[in-house]
User: Fold this.
Amino acid sequence: MGGWRPSCALRAAAVVGALVITATVLLNGGVASASMRGLPKAMVGCWDRHAPALPVGTSAGVWLMQIKSGELLAFTPGTKSCSAQADFTGTLSVTGSHLTIGPLPVCPTKGVYTWKASASSLTLQASSDRCASRKLLFTGVWKKA
Assistant:
């Protein structure tokens, strides 16, 4: 027989679609974008890190950061838990190994960071961020609080 039957064509289209989605996820480092799946579970939670003094006038000290679905809450040094009132909030999104933070109240642009998470630590490294305060605050190793 010389042609495809409609059911064969539909199955072939479904297989091709599944392959395209699989290839996209693999090319993004095995993680689909935040818009497709949400934040990686290893990234969600309350984290702390000792940060240097920031150019906006905040003293050096231990900051808390809470990461939730599409949102980042930051707590200035002296705050004891992520259930307190946040000093500021911002948006975030993840695409593969890149985390985009911002804009924030003192940083009207967005910053892009590479990230690596384990059960007890989250490492952020600025790859493209022109805001000195955000870069100083977020770059480094955060520990699960």
